[in-house]
Design goal:
Elements lengths: L18 H5 L8 H13 L8 H17 L18 E2 L4 E5 L9 H12 L12 E7 L3 E8 L2 E2 L5 E6 L2 E6 L3 E18 L1 E2 L5 E16 L4
Parallel strand pairs: 2-3, 4-10
Antiparallel strand pairs: 1-2, 3-4, 5-9, 6-7, 6-8, 8-10
């Protein structure tokens, strides 16, 4: 199987991305003309590697918007278990990250954050199970590498306490934490103040672990 040559080769509609939408993800906000030229170069030369930290931020902002316009548009009725989208399987609640993306963005946690923000932060939840998503890296086959938790906070004073093994973690509303879990599966216990996860303020659940571990996203729409 031949991999695509660049981060953006898999997308054929980058020209449909709003420059203003890309700019909204960047601080300081660049001049729109400069950003428009940057996007044009990425369309012409999708294999180009980011040369600076700021270039990487721009690439991630473009990727976030590219994922949004290429996400699932309707329920996956046909081949539901396989899913109808290369980036998100809403039936199995699984985020799918193409393996070659890691050649350009080596940080798996950063990629997971971009995918989560693109697909899940503003997504209407059909049930409480939408608070938990597996994360898989795909390259012909799938390797499950971890889990994303999306607790629901009632206000910005809310917080979530988690326990994995003999370690405790705390997440405040608006933040993100990554919890190491190299095992295939791990059990976490949680308790929320001014919020809930899976419809409960306090519970214990078993989730996927792996290279990524557990990402707990406290950012709301």
């Amino acid at each position: 199987m031949v991999r695509p040559a660049g981060l953006f080769d898999i997308f054929d509609n980058l020209d449909q991305i709003s420059i203003e939408a890309i700019a909204s993800n960047l601080k300081p906000v660049p001049q729109l003309t400069a950003l428009e030229n940057y996007l044009a170069n990425r369309i012409l030369y999708p294999q180009t590697m980011a040369q600076t930290q700021y270039d990487m931020k721009v690439d991630l902002a473009i990727l976030r918007e590219a994922l949004k316009i290429n996400g699932p548009r309707q329920p996956q009725k046909n081949n539901a278990l396989l899913g109808g989208n290369p980036f998100l399987n809403t039936t199995l609640r699984k985020i799918l990250i193409p393996a070659h993306f890691l050649d350009y963005v080596p940080n798996l946690a950063v990629l997971t954050e971009v995918f989560t923000e693109a697909f899940l932060i503003n997504r209407k939840k059909e049930d409480w199970f939408s608070d938990v998503w597996a994360v898989a890296v795909t390259d012909g086959s799938e390797e499950v590498v971890g889990t994303v938790l999306l607790p629901q906070f009632n206000n910005m004073q809310a917080a979530m306490n988690l326990r994995l093994g003999n370690k405790n973690y705390q997440l405040k509303a608006g933040n993100l934490i990554q919890i190491p879990c190299p095992k295939d599966r791990c059990e976490i216990a949680y308790k929320l103040q001014n919020g809930q996860c899976l419809g409960k303020q306090e519970s214990a659940i078993e989730v996927y672990g792996g290279k990524l571990g557990i990402i707990v996203m406290g950012r709301q729409s």
